[in-house]
Amino acid sequence: MPLKITCIGSVHLDIFIDTFENHVIDGRGSFVSGLGGTAFNIATGLLFAGCKPYFISVLKKSSLFTRLILYAMDKIGIDKNNLEMLDYISDAGFFALRNNNELIKAVNVTPIEQLYLKAKNYKKILDESDAICIDFNNSIATIEDFIFKSKKPVYCHCVSEEKSLKLLKLSEASKTLMEKKIKAIFLNRYELKYLLKNANQNSPLGILKILWVVTKDKDGVMTFSPDGKITKYPNEVKGVTGSFSGAGDAFAAGFISAHIQGKTEYEYVQNGYRLVEVNLSKKHSGVIDESFLEEVDSMLFKDPLTGLYTRKFFLEEAKIIEARTQRSKKPFSVLLFDIDNFKKVNDMYGHDIGDLVLKQTGHIIATLIRASDIPVRLGGEELLVIFPETTIKKAHPIAERIRKAIKDHTFNLNGNGTLNVTVSGGIAEGITNIDEAIKKADEALYTAKRTGKDRICF
């Protein structure tokens, strides 16, 4: 049975800005986008460590940021059932300025810090969990409540210099209880220095006599044991030359999964390093790569069955094409397709085969048009292609190639024989109004159907 661990805290969109000119305010640089948040990163790390993470957080309802985050959670495999969706909070974001991959300045917007999440509302999953991880993006009220209510080991994550000070603001009752319940507190070297500076203590052990784990990026890890022992572990991850997004969180996930199983401290650390390597290879808490953005584009704007653009996308794009056409004085063309006798295909073979025909027909269309052309599924078996700045004379040969390719294509019916279909099409040209052009193409499509099908009419 995998370990079940509940993570309570932040998830947000990250923007990392790399600058090359520190001597000016408005300098050149580059940026990358990511998904982060301490609790989110740890939950993902625990998933790759073979654990089952529960994730508790708050997101802004009806937000593009939220849609990106939810999609990423589905892609990674993080359960979304324990998320709160509120419409009166801001989006959560983390904005960092770096030089040579080292953090210079960061600003975070964390709405969860302004809220009080009550542990009793999550009693079922807390009872099922083997441990809980709570980050200090949460409010002090939330942190104290989960520590008081939890019957399982607790691991805390300081998040940032300023938020590490929440340790000093906890009630005395909480501090006493924390020494019994908290198994480890994770922080980096900057957070440790800031905490000591503000605590007026010679050692963090004077604040809480529990295990402190200090991550030091390329320099490794240092632990402070409750008995006062300090141990340094050099970095053993190949290819790490500086700090990078999610490294400390990935280390914490590996450390925790080994700690719960009662292994040695050396094994905790080595398991942490192993998870850092996973972090580097899978980018699970770092950069959103191009393939992810393409998938999000598909989620928002493309029909999931055919891969063609949706009617909603077409309606927005039509305005742009009309404006461009009026500026350039070059006409556009539209092609309206309809699969012949499609109702008979559904009636005879079932809707699964009908979907297969639609899916492969969409793929054929997408592979035969130009990069500038826009293929759309208007609904059902009705498909549309827009040819920007293209006369009907130039669009017609493309339409004929598509018609012939679909006619020549043999659809394999999942081991139950094969099927061939044809399409009819209507094509029209326009310069001011795409809707008018589509109406003309629809009339031409009707003519193609009436005069024998499997043809393109003007």
Briefly characterize the structure.
The chain contains 16 helices and 20 strands. With 458 residues, it is α/β, with parallel strands linked by helices.
What's the structural blueprint in terms of helices and strands?
Layout: E1 4-8, E2 12-19, E3 29-36, H1 38-48, E4 52-60, H2 64-76, E5 83-86, E6 93-99, E7 102-109, H3 123-128, E8 131-135, H4 140-149, E9 154-157, H5 161-164, H6 166-169, H7 172-181, E10 182-188, H8 189-199, E11 211-215, E12 221-224, E13 230-233, H9 247-260, H10 265-282, H11 290-301, H12 311-328, E14 332-339, H13 342-349, H14 351-368, E15 374-379, E16 382-387, H15 392-408, E17 411-412, E18 418-419, E19 423-430, H16 434-450, E20 456-457
Helix pairs in contact: 1-9, 9-10, 13-14, 14-15
Question: Could you please describe the fold and organization of this structure?
Answer:
The structure is a single chain. This protein has 458 residues and is of the alpha/beta class. It folds into 2 domains: 4-289, UDP-N-acetylmuramoyl-L-alanine:D-glutamate ligase; 302-457, Alpha-Beta Plaits (2-Layer Sandwich), CATH 3.30.70. It contains 16 helices and 20 strands. The chain has helices at residues 38-48, 64-76, 123-128, 140-149, 161-164, 166-169, 172-181, 189-199, 247-260, 265-282, 290-301, 311-328, 342-349, 351-368, 392-408, 434-450, and strands at 4-8, 12-19, 29-36, 52-60, 83-86, 93-99, 102-109, 131-135, 154-157, 182-188, 211-215, 221-224, 230-233, 332-339, 374-379, 382-387, 411-412, 418-419, 423-430, 456-457. The strands form 4 sheets. A 9-stranded mixed β-sheet has the order 5-4-1-8-9-10-11-12-13, with helices on both faces. The protein has a 5-stranded mixed β-sheet with strand order 15-16-14-19-20, with helices on both faces. The chain has a 4-stranded mixed β-sheet with strand order 3-2-6-7. Helix 1 crosses helix 9 (247-260) and helix 14 packs across helix 15. It is elongated. It starts with a strand and ends with a strand.
